[in-house]
Amino acid sequence: MSALPRIIERLTHARLADGRTVDVRLAGPVVAEVVPAGTLAAGDPDTTLELDGFLLLPAPAEPHAHLDKALSWDAIRPPMGDLRLAIDSWHAHSARMTVDDIATRARTQALTMLAHGTTAIRSHVDLLHGDDPLRGVRALVQVRDELRGLLDLELVTLGGYLTPVEDMEAALAAGVELVGGAPHLAPDPVAELHRLLAVARRHGVGVDVHTDESLDCDVTLDVLARAVLDWEVPVSAGHCVRLGTLDGPRRDQVIADVLAADVGIIANPITNLYLQGWESDVATPRGLTAVRALVDAGVRFAAGADNVRDPFNPLGRSDALETAMLLVVAGHLSVDEAYAAVSTGARDVMGLPAAGVEVGARAELLAVRGDDLVGVVATATADRYVLHRGRLVALSETHTQVAAPALLAPSYPEAR
After folding, report:
1. pLDDT (tens digit, 9 = 90+) per residue, 320-353?
2. Buried b (16+ CB within 10 A) or exposed e, 402-412
3. DSSP β-ladder status, 301-303 and 264-267
4. pTM score, whole prediction
5. Domains along the sequence of the chain with CATH
6. Can you tell me the distance from the alpha carbon of 363 to that of 26, in angstroms, rounded to the nearest whole number?
């Protein structure tokens, strides 16, 4: 087999989530033809993928990552705990980080996500304390350039209420695309939210804000929605945990504001389930936004893994199928809805062109060994092909041996 990446022109005998088995012709970065299996004429083996036994899906997109934090758990060894404890652990460690350290971890994490099928990542990047606040920015811009052609990487500023506006603007000048922050952590969350929005408005860029990341904080999601009602740039809100704890009428009022402003909502189940509820030892509340209500209302909805093996989440498999599984068991979405949230829904919230197995769609595709979507999300088999812009950029193949049961195996003398 040719080295990666390589151009793919035909995908044959692929099963789709709706049960059809098809051949697919690609024309560079887009899908040109989808026909019943066996219809396309044989092509060059080096540009053809035979996908008999595989489910072909739109590739996942990660709408909320922290590549600058990823894989730092082993170096920090933080105590397990809630959001404030995680923030304190991270701040203590980040003062010692170098650009090379950040870039190495971020690169490793991004490539692991790519191997599992994610071909687009939006990562927040901390504006750090100290004399060189843009260390993380420079590291992630470097990684973005290195991985260009393998995956799409978009960057968002992440500063606190003490972060100078000048640092945010310097990050934008250095190549960061969106303005973000965490207004709910400020003494005056509404004032901090408007400060961030003013920076974005002044520079004509989109916004992706950490929002209401607590079970009992003041609600600012509706303030955000009303403030950007007439904006033409993309706006999204991550976490929105407080929304999941509101009573029905108040929740529905906030969701109506979100829908009117077309704000995309990004749930982060694994990290929020880990960080929230530590103070309750009976009937522990679940840290998750109002997933079911948001989807039912027609809000543009996505879900991400957020933190992976850092003080904010010690675990994580860097696999969108894990996020989809958690949306089913913790958020009560159907499997189809959950996979949409980590693929087509994520791309929509991120403002990316539509992708999938449809004529004219971008050839951002994931083939996973399996017969149907429920089985694929349940087992998350490692056998996968990943296509980005019509090129094969990752493949994984596994080999398994299991001893035969005693009734099927040859008989051997008992060990003594």
Report:
1. 999 999 999 999 999 999 999 999 999 999 999 9
2. eeeeeeeeeee
3. parallel
4. 0.95
5. 6-58+357-396 (2.30.40.10), 61-349 (3.20.20.140)
6. 7
